[in-house]
Amino acid sequence: MKGMSRIVKTVTNFVYGFIIIFGFYIIVHGHLTPGGGFQGGAVAGSAFALLLVSYGSLNSKKFLKDDIFSLFENFGLTLFIILGFSGLGITFFYNFLANSGGWFGDAALIGVNPGDMNTGGVIPLMNIAVGLEVLSAFGVIVLTMARGAEFTKKKEKS
Amino acid sequence: MIGNLAYVAVVIFIGLGIYSLMFKKNLIKIAIGIVLIENGVNLFLITLGYRKGAVAPIYTQSPSGQAMVLPTPQALTLTSIVIGIATTALILSIAMIIYKHYGTLDTDQVRRLKG
Amino acid sequence: MKKIIFGIAFIIFFSFLVVSAINMRTFGEPTLSEMDDYFIENAQSETGANNVVTSIVFDYRGFDTLGEATVLFTAVVGVVALFRGVKK
After folding, report:
1. How far is CA A149 from CA A1, A58, A139, B30, B92, in A?
2. Inter-chain CB proximity B61 and A152 less than 8 Å
3. In this structure, which of A138, B31, B89, C84 has its CB flanked by the most CB atoms within 10 Å?
4. Nearest by CB: B96 against A112, A134, A148
5. Is the pLDDT of residue A158 over 50?
6. Do residues C45 and C57 make contact, with C-beta atoms less than 8 angstroms apart?
7. What is the pLDDT of residues B15-50, one digit of tens each?
8. In B1-115, at which residue ranges do the beta strands (DSSP E only) sit?
């Protein structure tokens, strides 16, 4: 597909970094505020769709590659499964880091409180793994469908 | 009947989705009907877990001393939304491959032409 | 002829849905809620997270999230496999 005008390209250059950072903010603070892995991954995945639409699918072959997205998706799902197996002393998917004092192991105050980032156990790590997977899944699906749509048209100028 | 307006809205969603699934011939319109049915069912799951005058089930800086909404239907709806995304992506990809092979998106003609 | 049969079946099904939507129980009063009351009471002391919905999705019912991540992965594999035989 063809790219868009110069105003759209200038605004996209400025804005897509903020969208990705906002998506990561929602992913990492998943155990304190509304949000989590899936919602933050969807927000950050829409930045890649913005890049693809505003530059055209022929020009975006230089900076959006399929291999890196596929690597991140496999890494995210493998990390999620490893976190599930590592609490296997008691049961599958056991929260072995909560209330322990290690990495994310402080105990949360009971009742209404301003949130502490160090709590949560194994939940923030699972949020990051699922967020990486959803982000890459969006990128791969949108890129593959956009490049598959090129074959039906005759020669077009970009 | 005014108190049950949420359930009537869900029924309108599902009814429009089934109408578009049964009576239309373009493949993209059939895909839109399937997406409408899925979104109607997700809305129905969320409206089942509401308590009158309650707040969201999060403890960070919420007004103290109030009841909370049931959190379990919200967790199940998250899973259902992601499965809807997977279904929609596969349906649209198959529609693109059919258009490349037959040259048309009409369901009457896709059945008749061979090769 | 086929259109008339489809039309009658659709009208019967739609009226069935509307009648059952009007006669449901009142909106905003769930009857059986012992499990959710347990989750709201004990989620902060057992898991240490302030967000009850996230602790249900990843800690109390983490197995469903594993199934959902696998479905998303399978969908991406299916889309890439469909577009692999297309010549440029």
Report:
1. 8, 11, 16, 20, 11
2. no
3. A138
4. A148
5. no
6. no
7. 999 999 999 999 999 999 999 999 999 999 999 989
8. none
Asked if B33 reaches chain C (Cβ–Cβ under 8 Å), the answer is no
**pLDDT per residue as tens digits for the range B66-78:** 888 999 999 999 9
**Domain that includes residue B93, residue range:** 5-51+69-110
When CB atoms are compared, the residue of A115, A145, A152 closest to B100 is A152
Reported pTM = 0.89
Distance from the Cα of A7 to chain C's closest Cα (Å) equals: 31
Question: What's the rounded Cα separation, in Å, for the pair C44 and A110?
Answer: 6
Smallest Cβ distance to C56: which of B14, B59, B75? B75
Number of domains in chain B: 1
Residue B76 CA: distances (Å) to CA of A29, A74, B79, C65: 21, 25, 5, 10
Q: Is the pLDDT of residue A156 over 60?
A: no
A90-114 pLDDT, tens digit per residue, is: 888 888 888 777 788 887 788 788 8
CATH number at residue B30: 1.10.287.3510
| Cα distances (angstroms) measured from residue B110 to each of A111, A151, B31, B87, B99 | 61, 20, 16, 21, 9
* Closest C-alpha among C25, C60, C18, C19 to residue C39: C60
Check residue A155 and give its pLDDT. Answer: 42
